[in-house]
Design a protein that fits this description.
This protein is mainly alpha-helical. The protein has 2 domains: 137 residues, Orthogonal Bundle (Fumarate Reductase Iron-sulfur Protein, Chain B, domain 2), CATH 1.10.1060; 273 residues, no CATH class. 50% of the residues lie in helices and 5% in strands. The protein has 21 helices and 8 strands. Strand 7, helix 20 and strand 8 form a beta-alpha-beta unit. Helix 4 crosses helix 7, helix 13 crosses helix 14 and helix 15 packs across helix 17. It starts with 29 loop residues before the first helix and ends with a helix.
Length: 456
């Protein structure tokens, strides 16, 4: 069954899009809401400079189409990055520039319609926001940034994926205070289980400290790791134990996930405030982010932007582990991992060039048969579930047959038995691709393999 090109037929929900949305009441005023939200954002942020610059420099040459894995799989013009960007730039030119306002008034130009709102709401969420297209744009346009802005405006107008909104509501206003709705007693039970597991399998007494004051690091993994990625967490804890690092988990806030990156800047800022607030409550000196691409990116980029004087240094667990290996603090058995291993670069930590070498250096320090994907690094293909899509179960068919198709073909061609990646969302998407395309490989975290190879 092919993915429908008609958004009204691509979801079994009442949503007109291929993702579920929260009820938004009467739809007749959506264009007005969109324009008011757009105007407010332009007035109260620095987006105006970016949008104005892009509206002047955009050539709409289409070179970005060659690097977009969604367009390469779908062949639909709406998936060409510059086409999608112009959906928003055209609205800006018409309603927020003197020339556009004059022509609209004098020539009675076409107004923003419900169909155009629906077109943007569909197209901006078909984009993975992986920013691979920025590598090809001769004018330096960041189409992923325009996708984010478009989603931000839509959310302020009442259009946002239900899966993201519900999770964020629980994180910011719910009793559990995290996106997976894990109660604190359940978290504590889970940490005790992980400690017992490390004792039984590795013979080491490792503690997952909670509410320890004055630690060097407060640790924020993707909270879903506590439910689904035990080996990753045990690997993180084993490294911290072996290096003698002081660290803690906060009982009042322990979720590294920040879905605001995917659809709303106000949400992004409020989550950063919670994260930083918990760090200061425990007097931690640094923020340590676990294996999560978007959690690492949001902490590193937006703690300095939003926390001001309360900002803390942000360290990835990948950097910490790589440094420990170089300093000889970890003993890793090079004969433990006999399978061929490859590495998938999560877009949020690789496209900018931030975390390219550390994970590879970690793996190569004990993996004998390591192969690279083609392409890899900054040019690597997205897992196919980026920009929050992997958290929306109703997008499964799109993620398997369109957005993840290039990734599946790339994985099949590399011949590896193990794909390691330091991102909870990537692992979920890649595992689904492996099952869907029947690929002969398993997907693990980087620290899953570190744990297997560690000797104590």
């Amino acid at each position: 069954m092919a993915v429908s090109s008609d958004p009204k037929n691509s979801s079994k929900s009442e949503s007109p899009y291929f993702y579920h949305v929260e009820p938004i009441g009467e739809t007749g005023d959506r264009a007005e809401k969109f324009l008011k939200a757009f105007a407010a954002i332009l007035q109260n942020s620095n987006y105006r400079f970016i949008v104005e610059l892009f509206s002047i420099t955009s050539a709409k040459c289409g070179r970005c189409s060659a690097s977009c894995q969604v367009y390469q799989a779908s062949g639909e013009p709406r998936d060409i990055p510059c086409h999608r960007t112009h959906l928003l730039l055209d609205v800006y030119r018409q309603y927020f520039t003197p020339g556009g306002q004059f022509l609209t008034r004098i020539l009675e130009g076409e107004s923003l319609s419900e169909d155009k709102i629906d077109d943007m709401a569909e197209c901006f969420y078909r984009c993975l926001a992986c920013r691979r297209c920025t590598l090809e744009c001769p004018m330096g346009l960041d189409h992923g940034l325009i996708t984010h802005l478009g989603r931000y405006i839509l959310s302020e107008a009442g259009i946002a994926p239900k899966g993201l909104v519900v999770s964020v509501r629980e994180q910011l206003e719910g009793a559990s205070g995290n996106t997976s709705a894990i109660p604190l007693p359940a978290l504590l039970d889970n940490l005790e289980f992980l400690q017992d597991e490390l004792r039984d399998t590795k013979g080491i007494e490792v503690k997952f400290p909670v509410d320890q004051q004055d630690a060097e690091y407060i640790f924020y993994p993707a909270v879903s790791d506590y439910l689904m990625e035990a080996d990753t967490l045990m690997g993180n804890a084993a490294v911290l134990h072996a290096t003698g690092t002081t660290w803690t988990i906060g009982s009042q806030y322990f979720d590294g996930i920040n879905y605001g990156l995917f659809y709303n800047d106000w949400v992004l800022e409020r989550i950063i405030e919670k994260l930083v607030g918990e760090a200061h409550r425990l007097n931690a000196r640094k923020v340590l982010v676990g294996e999560c691409g978007h959690a690492a990116r949001t902490a590193r980029q937006f703690i300095p932007a939003f926390a001001g004087d309360k900002s803390l240094p942000v360290v990835s667990v990948l950097d910490l582990t790589n440094k420990a290996i170089k300093e000889g603090k970890l003993k890793l058995n090079p004969n433990t991992i006999t399978e061929r291993v490859t590495y998938h670069d999560p877009c949020n930590i690789a496209r900018s060039g931030w975390l390219l070498d550390p994970p590879r250096q970690i793996l190569k320090s004990f993996v004998k048969d390591f192969v690279e994907l083609t392409p890899h690094g900054k040019a690597n293909y997205c897992c196919g579930g980026g920009s929050g899509l992997v958290s929306l179960d109703e997008t499964y068919e799109f993620r398997m047959k369109i957005s993840g198709k290039s990734k599946a073909e790339q994985l099949r061609a590399c011949g590896a038995q193990i794909v390691a990646t330091p991102c909870a969302n990537c692992k979920k998407q890649l595992r689904e691709l492996v099952d869907f395309y029947k690929l002969p490989m398993q997907v693990v975290g980087v620290h899953d393999l570190v744990l297997r190879a560690m000797e104590f």
